[in-house]
């Protein structure tokens, strides 16, 4: 007798039809267990890795009282919560006196440790709170009172949350908050008849305190980083100002040096035509001098092209205006007077012909000093004096402004950056002079520069600054 085999889809399966469902459930369970182990590992890592242990809270504060404030607050909480905790546990909840004292001590004294090691203090206080909750499950005074966290426990725990929030990372705070909530729910599940919603209250209040403290900490971190960036930016601005001023001086000196080099070139080229009877060797020497002067001019122009700033490169053409000097000071003073600053100008009685570099430096020093008066002390009476001292070998430039009268309008700038003095120092250093600046005892400001009438040739090595007010 033959039997007909059934197709696979028609074969009786019994429990085989539930095997795919079971396999899917097992895979889902494995994924859940794997995720739980990973979360537990992260939780353990965060709760076991404190941030900056041993460093007191607010240790970077500038004021001394701010650095002492955490110690005062922690001591106040510990001193007030210790006797209160003993009284609440002993009288209200009916815990034995010795056990109540031990639990209250473990729940309050760690607040002193929280100033330097808040995460370690949390471990101690959290363990003490759990032990206290376990003890309270076996006493009869819990009925009608908060459980598993008594009021003193909640107050001390919130104080600890505040210390944690200003020190630990965000992930650590989340781990602490979740551990607190899960522990409270476990106690509620074990003895639901004793619960008076203290676990929910602890969970919500601790989350609020952690959130506010973390927000304040992150705001303080952002402000510190902003201050650091401002400090870096100010240093970069000072450095850029110095480089721009040196570039400006280089451009101005180009005109001074180019004039002398051009004179040398013309004299060398025209010497054979102006002077008769010059030997051929001398004519060749004059030609070599003129060629060297032209080559030096070309090299100087190439170097100046490297030093020019982008703003100068964008100009329509080269700077062709003659460089100013002491002779242009009356026009400068007149323009300053029109800006509302009364200025008195005193010039030497006899004509003075300083070197071009000294003449330009003296003009720029007065120009920058008057600009500072206009910006910072509008309307202040100012005196500009240019005299010769040292037997006619030195030029003294003095700009003094008095304390301004109550201004009709606010100054253009209320705080100076000191960048204007950078150019003065560089120009004085260039001609081997000295500079003295600073406020006057009765108000006002003083700028005094001593410049040699004949600028010395600078040495080949580094030239130290001679400014009396250099940092």
How many H/I helices?
13
Determine the fraction of residues in helical runs and give it as a percent range: 55-70%
Give unreliable regions as ranges: 5-13, 314-318, 457-471
C-alpha geometry = elongated
Distance between the termini: 116 Å
Summing up helix and strand content along with how strands pair, one would put the structural category as: alpha+beta
Mean pLDDT over the residues: 79
Q: Classify the oligomer.
A: single chain
- Total count of domains: 3
Count of DSSP E strands?
5
- Rg, alpha carbons: 42 Å
Structure in words:
The protein has 471 residues and is of the alpha+beta class. It is built from 13 helices and five strands. It has helices spanning 19-47, 64-92, 97-108, 110-113, 118-136, 151-165, 170-190, 198-274, 280-307, 310-313, 329-338, 356-376, 419-430; strands at 343-346, 382-389, 394-401, 434-439, 445-452. The chain has a five-stranded mixed beta sheet, with helices on one face. Helix 12 links the parallel strand 1 and strand 2. Helix 1 (19-47) crosses helix 7 (170-190) and helix 8 (198-274) packs antiparallel against helix 9. It is elongated and about 130 Å long. Mean pLDDT is 79; it is low at 5-13, 314-318 and 457-471. InterPro entries: HATPase_C_sf, HATPase_dom, Sensor_HK_TwoCompSys, Sig_transdc_His_kin_sub3_dim/P. The chain crosses the membrane at residues 69-89, 95-115, 122-143, 149-166, 173-191, 197-216.
């Amino acid at each position: 007798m033959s039997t007909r085999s059934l197709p696979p889809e028609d074969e009786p399966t019994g429990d085989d039809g539930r095997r795919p469902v079971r396999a899917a459930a097992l895979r889902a369970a494995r994924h859940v267990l794997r995720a739980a182990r990973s979360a537990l590992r992260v939780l353990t890592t965060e709760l076991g890795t404190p941030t900056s242990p041993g460093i007191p809270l607010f240790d970077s504060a500038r004021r001394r009282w701010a650095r002492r404030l955490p110690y005062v607050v922690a001591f106040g909480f510990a001193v007030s919560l210790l006797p209160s905790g003993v009284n609440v546990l002993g009288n209200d909840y009916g815990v034995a006196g010795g056990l109540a004292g031990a639990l209250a001590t473990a729940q309050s004294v760690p607040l002193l440790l929280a100033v330097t090691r808040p995460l370690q203090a949390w471990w101690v206080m959290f363990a003490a709170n759990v032990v206290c909750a376990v003890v309270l499950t076996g006493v009869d005074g819990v009925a009608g009172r908060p459980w598993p966290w008594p009021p003193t426990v909640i107050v001390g725990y919130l104080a600890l949350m505040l210390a944690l929030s200003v020190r630990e990372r965000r992930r650590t705070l989340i781990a602490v908050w979740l551990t607190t909530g899960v522990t409270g729910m476990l106690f509620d599940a074990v003895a639901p008849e004793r619960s008076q919603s203290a676990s929910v209250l602890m969970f919500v209040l601790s989350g609020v305190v952690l959130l506010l403290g973390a927000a304040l900490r992150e705001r303080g971190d952002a402000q510190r980083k902003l201050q650091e960036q401002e400090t870096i930016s100010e240093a970069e601005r000072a450095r850029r100002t110095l480089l721009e001023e040196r570039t400006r001086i280089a451009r101005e000196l180009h005109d001074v040096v180019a004039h002398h080099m051009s004179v040398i070139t013309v004299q060398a080229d025209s010497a054979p035509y102006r002077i008769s009877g010059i030997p051929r060797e001398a004519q060749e020497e004059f030609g070599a001098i003129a060629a060297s002067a032209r080559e030096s001019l070309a090299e100087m122009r190439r170097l100046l092209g490297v030093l020019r700033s982008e703003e100068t490169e964008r100009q329509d053409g080269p700077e062709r205006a003659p460089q100013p000097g002491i002779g242009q000071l009356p026009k400068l003073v007149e323009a300053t007077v029109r800006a509302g600053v009364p200025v008195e100008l005193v010039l030497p009685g006899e004509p003075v012909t300083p070197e071009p570099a000294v003449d330009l430096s003296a003009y720029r020093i007065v120009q920058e000093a008057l600009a500072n008066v206009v910006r910072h002390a509008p309307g202040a009476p100012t005196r500009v004096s240019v005299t010769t001292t040292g037997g006619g070998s030195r030029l003294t430039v003095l700009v003094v402004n008095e304390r301004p009268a109550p201004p009709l309008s606010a100054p253009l700038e209320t705080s100076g950056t000191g960048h204007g003095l950078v150019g003065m120092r560089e120009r004085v250093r260039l001609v081997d002079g000295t500079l003295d600046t600073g406020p006057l005892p009765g108000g006002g400001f003083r700028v005094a520069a001593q410049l040699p009438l004949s600028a010395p040739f600078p040495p080949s090595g580094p030239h130290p600054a001679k400014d009396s007010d250099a940092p």
